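Protocol step 4 of 6.
Sequence for GTP cyclohydrolase 1 type 2 homolog (Pediococcus damnosus) entered exactly as in the expression construct, tag removed. Do not edit the line below.
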Amino acid sequence: MKIRTFIDKFEKLVPQELAEPGDPVGLQIGDLDTELSKVLVTLDVRPEVVSEAIDQNCNLIFAHHPVMFHPAHSLDLSVPQNKMYAEIIKHNITVYAAHSNLDAADKGMNDWLAEKIGLQRTERLLDGYVDQKHHQFGMGRIGYLDRPLSVMDFAALIKHKFELQGLRVVTQNPQKKISRVAVLGGDGGKYFNQALKKGAEVYVTGDVYYHTGHDMLAAGLSTVDPGHNIEKICIPKLASLFRSWKLMTENQIQIYESKVDTNPFTFI
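Step 5 output, structure tokens:
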């Protein structure tokens, strides 16, 4: 089976059209007409992940985060990022990324995060792509907890559920009881006003910028920032999806879930 056949099946569920404008989704490096043998599923494509793919004899790396957010202006192999590209090409590995299109997809990243948090009666947070059937897609989800919690108890719940060393909390009232929660995986600080308009009492998103935190406080919105790495939930979720496909079992394609911790941060 060609890698192209595998990707075509995925894109019927998560088309590239769902991605935010300018987001470099899709084929990153390699050849879609290569015969697929083994898939490595990862959040990030880092040198350690590429080494893992080589060790596991994987010839497709399927990632959430694109490997090439910014184009290389030279191929100086003393630069670690360029050396990684060279290793990918040298070992005939194809790299594919589903980023903001996976964030916006039904039963995609933000549904997985909302489910992990325990949100009920969820709806879309942001409006995005509309398909030919007039179905609206969009990033983020908003819903309700099964019971009210204080802001700090909710933050502790997030820390526990995602097995975090630490997280950041932005709040004027840490003991306020909340039940309506918005979540947007990754860097979603700039969308906090949309969360407010939808009635969110707490917003869960990563990489909140210092001055955005001030704006959130001024607006009265509590925010829990668990970091970007919670999106690693995509690894088991995507692997499970791929294993469920009949074409994968028919062609005896193996799926390997990356074991590399790509979180750059350590809490002390």
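Step 6, annotate. The chain is about 30% helix and 20% strand.
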